[in-house]
Amino acid sequence: MTDIKAALRAQRIETPSWAYGNSGTRFKVFAQQGVSRDPYEKLADAAQVHACTGIAPTVALHIPWDKVADYADLARHARELGVGIGAINSNVFQDDDYKLGSVTNPDPAVRRKATDHLLECVDIMDATGSDTLKLWFSDGINYPGQDDLRARQDRLAESLAEVYDRLGEGQRFLLEYKLFEPAFYATDVPDWGTAYAHCVKLGPKAQVVVDTGHHAPGTNIEFIVAFLLREGRLGGFDFNSRFYADDDLMVGAADPFQLFRIMYEVIRGGGLTDEVAFMLDQCHNIEPKIPGQIRSVMNVQEATAKALLVDRDALAAAQAAGDVLGANAVLMDAYNTDVRPLLAELREEMGLAPDPMAAYAGSGYFEKIAAERVGGQQAGWGA
Q1: Per-residue pLDDT tens for 354-369?
Q2: Which is the most buried residue in 59, 105, 228, 244, by most CB within 10 A?
Q3: pTM surpassing 0.85?
Q4: What secondary structure does DSSP assign to 171-225, as a single string?
């Protein structure tokens, strides 16, 4: 149990700045009281999540949503709040120029603009001390014949290579993939295999990020995780849940057993380290922002704790003996264990309240920001 607690104490989960802004569906963005109005207030909200959970010390930024005049000052502000700047997320999907793609666009001027933005994000990494650039491309085509599929891969490779060469010592980029949307006929980075192939060609600073919502129904995500870990190419996760498509709901909401299975493969493959980034990528449309992030961190914690409880010796023995039901029972015994008392005990040992949700509710922070953050433009996802 001591080893399990040590592993849980060392776990780090990064929260996204955009989770603290207003968001919604494709039809409506829902405003809430007390929502942050700039990146500085987003960091303050994220600091509350870390204060309540003890394991969320970094915040991912999204550029240009989190653009500021002085990134070194923003990093200083984060440190004063007890958190740090995590991954820098690029945005090459919201300008009118990107209607036909960004780095794969047939127009070289648009490709230049998109790649320059990615290079700008590396500059921001330098200024903030971030070591991770996260890349997601909405690029693709809607109709057969609209563009040349192979040429688009060539353009993608060319841009990625330029960005890769710009990375400094200790920096990396994570390449995300998405099955569809907004491109419906062909997406330029539609699956983990495409992302993996580009990363392998580039070198060790290029790794794959697995967004748990970006897969076809029935996809065995834990297999993807196991494969990428085996190849040394799993750079991190964007944790969320999906019921139908890329719903960006709270991690563990749709299928907590899947999250447990993923975390078991992470532990089995030696991925519970700082080398694999555990990031949340969610939009809280109708639930309150900060409690939504706290609950999500707790959900990942609980899945991790259960995965750590798997009796791996017993599992290996059952597998070697061909004991199908016995092997499955070992996993199910761990999954069905109530780990909440263990985590409450761990938090108390860390000097935290045993129930993070109750701690936040009793902190008075929401009442404070609801009163103070009146006026100004509330942050949103830029839609």
Answers
A1: 999 999 999 999 999 9
A2: 59
A3: yes
A4: -EEEEE--SSSS-SSEESS-SHHHHHHHHHHH-TTEEEEEETTSS-TT--HHHHH
